[in-house]
């Protein structure tokens, strides 16, 4: 018991500072995603609170952080446009949560285990690059696009790359100064100052960034008005003047739309997309976890479903596990799920009691925090290490990054998986059949899984065996042989005597490999695999 208390206290020393970092990262994203989705700004904050408190408590993941996701922005904005009533959309969010719970019950969480590691790493690097590219305009004071929008084609007519170019033509001196100072604080504090003393490591660099940024901007207002940042480039949180006003920000779904088919199709779409994004992000979170803990994915789907039900019932956007918040949580040293829960509590307390103070924070300072987070996800050393591993690993990694940058998360992952599958098939294709020859003796060794893709090479090489040769076909090491391959071999066994070819076929007696025909010059051996010795030809 004493040991557990000490471990909890030790974890709390890490989780509390980490929760502050995640809170500062989540705040602009919650607001930006709500703005980009065409939903009330407070709905994004509600989703962030529920993602931290409810899902954080129910999830089996120790480090994953959930909240409103940019990947659902397009779905949300289309659904709200079709339904015309935000309360009807909230009903779809609730039903989507029900569907997710069903997915967890039927154990659909196993889908995440089939994503190659190179694709997961590519996804993390792509999100890091997206953070850098998307937050750069906000760093220099160009806020034409909402902070939470991660799509390639933006609502303002720009795309990810042209947005950077336009930002360079619309620099705000005050925002640029605050952004650069914020970046410098992040780097210097983490690399030089914090490592010098344990007590300094408990002070989150993002908190210092926010405090310094607010002080600088308030100083500009009194001493250099030309550099002062206007309200349009500051955080914008709805401010309530009373408890009743604050409670009015929460909205209930309208159950009278339960028979509307658009509500049901939207709910199913939210459930599928949110579940896929969650499974991908959980895989990434487990990969980033320094303790390499494994999250129970089916429990995660049910936790996400419960979170979406609660979010929809009180006026929030749909929720998924989010890599940006999760990576910030891990990089800031979190050890347990208490960090995610605390960040949700901080969101609730801050918007309830200090919204006016939060509205003093420059977006450029928060952009600096996100850019630094993005750099940690997409360090140059990561690209170098994958390049050294070979093209069969590097290409899925690189193409996943490019695809996500130019499309979206799910499409990019799908493209990465297809490329990864190509290399798996190619590797199996090359290693499944070994053909060795010495004078007039030939060895055909079938290994692992021999599929119909190997049919052309086997058929071609068998037909090229010259007359009066001896052939050994060793199938003892094959786990699976496609029927097309068996047919090719049996056809060869039948006409081999016509060319004076002597054939020896070795197969396992404990595997149903499907061979049935023998020729007059064919010897068939059926021995256990363990008794077979390598054959030199």
UniProtKB/TrEMBL annotation:
Location(s) in or outside the cell: Membrane
Alphabetic keyword roster: Membrane, Transmembrane, Transmembrane helix
Membrane topology type: Multi-pass membrane protein
BP-aspect Gene Ontology terms: transmembrane transport
InterPro entries from the UniProt entry: SLC26A/SulP_dom (IPR011547), SLC26A/SulP_fam (IPR001902), STAS_dom (IPR002645)
One Pfam family per UniProt: Sulfate_transp
Keyword Mitochondrion attributed: no
One cellular-component annotation, GO: membrane
Residue ranges of every copy of the STAS domain listed in the record: 443-505
Transmembrane segments: 16-35, 65-83, 89-106, 118-136, 171-189, 201-220, 262-282, 302-324, 360-378, 390-407
Name the record gives this protein: STAS domain-containing protein
Source organism of the structure: Niastella populi
Lineage of the species this protein comes from: Bacteria, Pseudomonadati, Bacteroidota, Chitinophagia, Chitinophagales
């Amino acid at each position: 018991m004493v040991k557990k208390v000490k471990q909890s206290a030790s974890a709390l020393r890490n989780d509390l500072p980490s929760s502050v970092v995640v809170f500062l990262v989540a705040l602009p994203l919650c607001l930006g995603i709500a703005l980009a989705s065409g939903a009330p700004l407070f709905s994004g904050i509600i989703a962030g609170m529920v993602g931290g408190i409810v899902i954080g408590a129910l999830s089996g993941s120790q480090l994953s952080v959930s909240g409103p996701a940019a990947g659902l922005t397009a779905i949300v904005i289309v659904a709200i446009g079709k339904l015309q009533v935000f309360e009807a959309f909230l009903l779809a969010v609730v039903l989507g949560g029900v569907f997710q719970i069903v997915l967890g019950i039927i154990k659909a969480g196993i889908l995440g285990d089939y994503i190659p590691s190179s694709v997961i790493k590519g996804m993390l690097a792509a999100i890091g690059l997206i953070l850098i590219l998307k937050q750069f305009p906000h760093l220099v004071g160009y806020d034409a696009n909402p902070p939470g929008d991660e799509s390639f084609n933006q609502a303002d007519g720009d795309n990810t790359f042209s947005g950077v170019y336009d930002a360079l033509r619309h620099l705000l001196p005050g925002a640029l100064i605050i952004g650069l100072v914020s970046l410098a604080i992040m780097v210097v504090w983490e690399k030089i100052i914090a490592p010098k003393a344990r007590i300094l490591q408990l002070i989150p660099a993002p908190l210092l960034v926010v405090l310094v940024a607010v002080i600088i901007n308030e100083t500009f207002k009194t001493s250099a008005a030309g550099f002062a940042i206007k309200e349009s480039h500051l955080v914008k949180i709805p401010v309530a003047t009373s408890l009743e006003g604050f409670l009015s920000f929460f909205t209930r779904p309208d159950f009278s739309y339960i028979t509307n088919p658009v509500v049901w199709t939207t709910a199913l779409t939210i459930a599928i997309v949110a579940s896929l994004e969650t499974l991908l992000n959980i895989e990434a979170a487990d990969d980033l976890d320094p303790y390499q803990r494994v999250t129970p994915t089916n429990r995660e789907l049910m936790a996400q479903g419960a979170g979406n039900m609660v979010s929809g019932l009180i006026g929030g956007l749909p929720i998924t596990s989010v890599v940006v918040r999760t990576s910030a949580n891990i990089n800031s040293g979190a050890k347990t799920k208490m960090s995610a829960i605390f960040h949700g509590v901080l969101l609730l307390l801050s918007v309830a009691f200090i919204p006016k103070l939060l509205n003093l924070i420059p977006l450029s300072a928060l952009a600096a925090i996100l850019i630094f987070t993005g750099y940690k996800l997409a360090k140059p050393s990561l690209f170098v290490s994958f390049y050294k591993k070979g093209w069969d690993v590097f290409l899925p990694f690189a193409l996943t990054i490019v695809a996500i940058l130019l499309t979206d998360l799910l499409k990019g992952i799908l493209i990465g998986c297809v490329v990864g599958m190509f290399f798996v098939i190619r590797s199996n294709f090359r290693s499944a059949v070994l053909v060795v020859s010495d004078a007039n003796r030939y060895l055909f060794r079938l290994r692992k899984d021999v599929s119909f893709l190997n049919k052309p090479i086997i058929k071609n090489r068998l037909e090229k065996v010259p007359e009066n040769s001896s052939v050994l076909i060793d199938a003892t090491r094959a786990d699976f042989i496609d029927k097309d391959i068996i047919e090719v071999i049996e056809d060869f066994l039948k006409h081999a005597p016509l060319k004076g070819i002597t054939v020896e076929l070795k197969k396992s007696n404990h595997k149903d490999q499907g061979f049935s025909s023998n020729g007059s010059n064919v010897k068939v051996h059926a021995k256990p695999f363990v008794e077979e010795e390598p054959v030199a030809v």
